[in-house]
Structure formats: C-alpha cells, structure tokens
Amino acid sequence: MLEQERENLVERLIKWGYLTKPQIIAAFRKVPRHEFIPGGGGSYAYADQPLPIGKGQTISAPSMIAIMMETLDLSPGLRVLEIGTGSGYNAALIAEVVGRKGTVVTVERIKELADFAKENLKRTGYGWVKVVTGDGSLGYEEGAPWDRILVTACAPEIPEPLIKQLKVGGKLGAPVGRDYMFQTWTVAEKRKEGEIVITEHGGCSFVPLIGRCGWRSDD
Ligand code: SAM
C-alpha cells in the first residue's frame, strides 16, 4: 500500500520533470519517506508537500528535494555535506545515491531533531550517515573539502565558510533570500580557487538558516 503510494509519487515527479537521473529516481523509489515523519504522516506521507516534523521545522516537499539533488548532480562515491538534517530523509536519499564508497555528514542545530534523525536513519539502514549537532552555517571543517554541499534552510547569502570548504570542481546548492516569499534555489560551482559561478533555479520557500553566518535567532 505505502510502496504503491511511493511509486505513484515517483511516477508523478518523473512525469512533471522533477526527476530525470536514474540514480536519484532509484533513491526516491527506495527510501521510505513515512519512516521520517512523526506518526508516519498518514495519507500525506507521499503527497508532494512539506510536512511538520516538530520544533517548528519541516521535511521538504519531494519535488523540492528532487530539484536540490538533480541540480547538484549527485553520484556514487561523492563526499557530501548537508546543512539542516531535520528528519534525516534528505540525508538518506543522498546516502542512497553516493553509496557506502561515499560520505554523508549532516549538521542540525536543534538537538532533538538531530536525535530524531539519527533514530530514523538507523532504523531505515542508513546508520552510517554522520549526524552532527551544531551551527551548520559554519560548515563542517573536519570533513572538508566537500564535493557537494546541500543547504536546506534559507540564508541571506551563501555562508562564506561553506564556499571555503567546497572542493575545486565541487557544487553547493542553497536557498538564498530575504524571507519566505523571496528565495531562490542557488547553485555555486567552484571552478577554481577564487572563481565561483552562480546559477539560479527558480523560487523556493525554506525555513531560515539560523547561525553565525545565517540569520540571527532574533531576526
Ligand atoms: N533536510 C531536512 C529533511 O530531510 O527533513 C529538512 C530540513 S528543514 C527544511 C531545515 C532544517 O535546518 C531544520 O531542521 C532547522 O532546524 C535546520 N537549521 C536551521 N539553521 C541551521 C543551522 N545554522 N545549522 C544546522 N541546521 C540548521
């Protein structure tokens, strides 16, 4: 039943053009979104919409996650840093694509959510993903440089530490903008040290990235 709902969602995302790459499609087919939603999400688990996960945060809509993953050209073996773990669902999808030869580290500022994500990842077979509690606007220096950095909360601009921690040839995706209404999914490619090429991929709506290089908590 849930498998069929998941398959229907994947078919819709393919039909609408959000999913195109075979490895990303396979990950969406495999990772059980309902396992990452408090209470399982009922009939909404495989609807294309964001859902609450507690602490005022959300698990993103599947079509938005598809845009994030497709624009970053995720592929097996990459070292990926995610900022904004939330439920852990996006981290599990990334893990499914990069595989055990790759690396996935995800940073969450709210400890209760980091713990929730750890449990979800372990239960679904992605316990090897490293979940770190901290301010992801500063990146995660210990594992740098990263092939890919995926930010799932909106900042006024791409945090400088993340650009520094990106490998030459690497790509970073982040929602950039002023508030919920004016955000753009932005991809930064580091062509060489000091040369960053920015492309924009349409409007989006994310919770704020709160931290030293994001918004202040009282903004
Ligand atoms: N990727 C998540 C998932 O699959 O469920 C959804 C992420 S939710 C849209 C954004 C998350 O970013 C929230 O859990 C929020 O607490 C977190 N966040 C906000 N500011 C942060 C920061 N400076 N460092 C790390 N996480 C942050």
Protein architecture, described:
- By secondary structure, this protein is of the alpha/beta class.
- It has a single domain, classed as Vaccinia Virus protein VP39 (Rossmann fold, 3-Layer(aba) Sandwich), CATH 3.40.50.
- Helix content is 28%, strand content 27%.
- It is built from six helices and nine strands.
- The protein has helices at 2-15, 22-30, 62-71, 89-98, 111-123, 160-164; strands at residues 51-54, 57-59, 79-83, 103-108, 130-133, 146-151, 166-177, 183-192, 195-204.
- The strands form two sheets. The chain has a seven-stranded mixed beta sheet with strand order 5-4-3-6-7-8-9.
- The longest helix has 14 residues, at 2-15.
- The model has no long low-confidence stretch (mean pLDDT 95).
- The chain binds S-adenosylmethionine.
- S-adenosylmethionine binds at residues 57-60, 83-84, 86-87, 89-90, 107-110, 113, 135-137, 152-153, 206-207, 209-211, 214.
Brief digest:
It is built from six helices and nine strands. It has 219 residues and is of the alpha/beta class.
